[in-house]
Structure formats: structure tokens, C-alpha cells
Design brief:
The chain has 4 domains: 56 residues; 31 residues, no CATH class; 209 residues, Jelly Rolls (Sandwich); 119 residues, OmpA-like domain (60s Ribosomal Protein L30, Chain: A). 23% of the residues lie in helices and 32% in strands. The chain has 7 helices and 24 strands. β13 and β14 form a beta hairpin. The relative contact order is 0.12.
Length: 449
């Protein structure tokens, strides 16, 4: 009724001023436009009331604006995701640009299990921002940086050269190597290289490994990695040789590293005697039965970049290097010895949120529990000694609870077979003055009850 009255009054006022046929047509159009406008406003009021009702129904999502005007969404699992006004999920790349992105999510096929003891660890936490890390050697340059969208410190590499961690002097028959590799979102340049070899003169000879392995010091392994940059497939190349004779020379393509969407990759290598398995973001890209020579000895690994024609824009970011030795004998240690300790279940810093690269270790323990359904275990969390004692104790308890929840929800382990506890920093097994010692103290224990 209100809408009809408004239309009548408006139409009469215009009619009194209408004298020509063209003006009459204008009046007709204006009247129709007004009718549509009033209808739109009425519909908008109805939509608003419907939205209020739906907001009450929806659960688990809280929205608030950050200081920069962007909306932060808190998901039901506690994850905070920045979104722009258009509702698209955004992440900030290392160069500050925004791209649609998704978090790493490893699949159930991920079977990588880290070694039992951490012997080398590098997160660059001891290096000053802007400096080159003191435990490394190079024939070029690089600097330690922090990022606005990723925790910790990183080694930024944007020029041709080789970077060798001098604290790694031995890679035995059974070891696992993990590291995170980031790349600028627009990178479309050279590959990133990992070399493993035996060098007679490390300080001099390691410099020859930045383009291709020269194969002149016995057995060597050379791997190249490159993101897809929106082209659909990333690629890697594996080469191994002994005294100039190639054993393996194989390139592969894989999907899960498109730096136009996701800047970071988690790379895992697993050596068991001659066998080599390589994973990138949970996808197994290599499983080579004879990649290594029998009884071959290795005293060096290094990273390299084959140059960049846009060093101010194109760069790699290296971080969280973790070398562990010894095979994880989960079944024997838990069932026979009564306790299994793993350092392969990783969490975000000061958080109980489990990192996706922990999937292989969790799957490993879940399989043992499924095969021994009558066994009850206590899950005990441990932290390093950095920070407040009380907070570390609380954190260790929450991390143990997260592990239990994951095993129950993802693998169907009976909740009544699992209890949890946390010891914080009180039961350290290694010194807390080195990066390796801290990594060994951060662990999860499964104790047979």
C-alpha cells in the first residue's frame, strides 16, 4: 500500500509538468524505474532479515576486521585466514603480493617417517637478520630474513652460487633429510639444487657443484627442483653417478608446487642403504631402489642456485633443515620394549596445531595400534626449555591431546585406548644450548600401559 501511494504522488507531480509526447515517454520510464527501485529496497530489507537468521544458524566462524581493514576469519579448528572484501581467501607471499592460496595438506599416501635421532638442525634462529649464517660456507652470498606470512627465519638466495652447511659431515646408510623451500610468487628462473657427495677437500671442491655434479670424487647425487609458476606441472631431476658413470638420470613432473598459488614446498629425502625416496608436499616423486652405491660414504651436502636474471625479484627461501639418523622401529619399540619416541610429529611454533608433514609418523604409529588393538598407550608431550616453564607444561599437554584427537578422528583408534599427559621441559634428553639438542627435546612419547 505504501509503495502504491508513493508511486501515485510521484506520477501526479510529473504529469502536471508534462506537455509533449516525448515528455510523456520520459514519465512512463521514470515511473517504471521508480517502481523497480522501491521493489529492490523492499527485497533488500527481506534479505537482511534472512541473513540475520542464517548468521544465528552458522557455527564455528567468527569474523572481525584487522587494523588494515581486511577481514580475518577464524575457522572452527582455530585457523585464522585473511580474506579480502570479495570473500576470496588470501595469503601474503614473501614479496608482499597477495594470491589465492591453500594450506599444505598431505595425503594418506604420505609414508615418510623421519629418523630416530636429530643430528643436524638449522632454522637460522641464531643468525641475525641481514647476516650470512656463521655455520655455513659459500662462494657467493645470501642473507637471513624474516617473512610477514611465515614464522621463523629463512636464508634468502637470489644469486648464482653454492651454500654448504659446514656442520654436516656425515650421511650414513640410513638417514632422513627434510627442508622447506620457498620461492617468490613470480619466480620463473633457475632451478634449486641439492647435492650429496664425498669430497676430498670440502672447503675447495664443494664450489664445483653449483651447475652439475662433476662426479670426480666417487659417488654423488644431484637433484634439481623447480615450481610450476602457473604452468600446471612442477618438475624435478635426479642424477647419480660413480666416477663419471651415470646410475640414474631421470626427470619427473608433479602437481603440488605451483608458486603462483603456494610459495612453499616441504621436501623430504629418505635413504635406506641403496634406496632413495623423495617427497614434495606429501607427494612421492621418486622411489629409486639403487640410487646409492653400496657402502658409499658421504661427507657433504650443499644447496645451489644456477643463477637469476632478475635477482631483485626472483629468489628462493631455505629453512627448517632437519637431518636425522636411524630407522624408526615403531612396532618393536612400542610392543616389545614398551615405549616409542618420535621427533617426527611436528607442531607450529608455540601451538598444538600439527604440521601436515607429520602425517607419515602418525600413520606409522596408527598402524601399530590397529594391529595391536588390545594395547593401551599413554601419549606424553615434551618441549625444549625455551620460554616459560608453566607455558611449556601446558603446551606439552595440549600437544599430546592433539595427537590423540588426530589418531581417533583420522585413523579410527579407540579413544579409551589412549590417555595423554605432558612433561613440558622437565624431562629433557639432550642439551638445550644447540639447535640439534632442542630438536631432540621436542618429542612425543608413546608408552605402553
Amino acid at each position: 500500500m505504501v509503495m502504491k501511494n508513493i508511486l501515485l504522488i510521484f506520477s501526479l507531480s510529473i504529469l502536471s509538468a508534462a506537455f509533449t509526447v516525448s515528455e510523456a515517454q520520459v514519465l512512463k520510464n521514470a515511473s517504471k524505474k521508480l517502481e523497480n527501485k522501491v521493489k529492490q529496497r523492499a527485497d533488500a530489507k527481506v534479505d537482511k532479515e534472512m541473513d540475520k537468521g542464517l548468521d544465528k544458524v552458522e557455527e564455528g566462524t567468527k569474523v572481525k576486521k584487522d587494523s588494515d581493514g581486511e577481514v580475518k576469519v577464524k575457522e572452527a579448528d582455530g585457523t585464522k585466514v585473511k580474506v579480502d572484501a570479495d570473500g576470496d581467501t588470501k595469503i601474503k607471499n614473501p614479496d608482499g603480493s597477495k594470491e589465492k592460496g591453500t594450506a599444505l595438506a598431505f595425503t594418506s599416501k604420505y609414508d615418510f617417517v623421519p629418523g630416530e635421532k636429530v643430528v643436524a638442525y638449522e632454522d637460522f634462529s641464531e643468525a641475525a637478520v641481514g647476516d650470512f649464517p656463521t655455520r655455513w660456507n659459500t662462494n657467493a652470498t645470501a642473507e637471513v630474513v624474516t617473512l610477514n606470512n611465515n614464522e621463523g627465519k629463512w636464508l634468502k638466495i637470489n644469486k648464482e652460487g653454492v651454500w654448504m652447511p659446514e656442520f654436516i659431515n656425515s650421511l650414513p646408510d640410513n638417514f632422513t633429510l627434510e627442508f622447506d623451500l620457498g620461492v617468490s610468487s613470480n619466480f620463473d628462473g633457475s632451478k634449486f639444487v641439492l647435492n650429496i657427495a664425498n669430497l676430498k677437500n670440502k672447503d675447495k671442491d664443494y664450489k664445483d657443484f653449483y651447475h652439475y655434479v662433476t662426479w670426480r670424487h666417487g659417488h654423488a647425487l644431484h637433484m634439481q627442483f623447480a615450481p610450476s609458476n602457473g604452468r600446471g606441472s612442477a618438475n624435478a631431476r635426479l642424477q647419480t653417478a660413480t666416477d663419471g658413470n651415470y646410475l640414474v638420470d631421470n626427470g619427473v613432473e608433479f602437481k603440488d608446487w605451483d608458486n603462483s598459488k603456494n610459495n612453499f614446498a616441504h621436501i623430504s629425502l629418505w635413504r635406506q642403504n641403496q634406496r632413495l625416496r623423495v617427497y614434495l608436499n606429501g607427494e612421492k616423486i621418486y622411489d629409486v631402489p639403487k640410487a646409492f652405491e653400496t657402502n658409499a660414504k658421504y661427507n657433504m651436502l650443499n644447496y645451489a642456485m644456477q643463477g637469476s636474471y632478475k635477482p631483485d625479484e626472483y629468489y628462493y627461501l631455505l629453512g627448517n633443515i632437519r637431518l636425522a639418523i636411524g630407522a624408526a622401529d615403531t612396532r618393536n619399540k612400542l610392543i616389545t620394549e614398551g615405549k616409542f619416541v618420535t621427533r617426527g610429529i611436528l607442531f607450529d611454533v608455540n601451538s598444538d596445531r600439527i604440521k601436515p608433514e607429520s602425517g607419515g609418523a602418525l600413520k606409522d604409529i596408527a598402524n601399530v595400534l590397529k594391529e595391536n588393538a588390545d594395547v593401551k598407550v599413554k601419549i606424553v608431550g615434551h618441549t625444549d626449555a625455551d620460554g616459560d616453564d608453566a607455558k611449556n607444561l601446558d603446551l606439552s599437554k595440549r600437544r599430546a591431546a592433539s595427537v590423540k584427537s588426530y589418531l581417533v578422528k583420522e585413523f579410527g583408534i579407540a579413544a579409551d585406548k589412549l590417555e595423554t599427559d605432558g612433561k613440558g621441559e622437565s624431562a629433557g634428553v639432550d642439551k638445550n644450548t644447540t639447535a640439534e639438542g632442542k630438536a631432540n627435546n621436542r618429542r612425543v612419547e608413546f608408552i605402553k600401559q
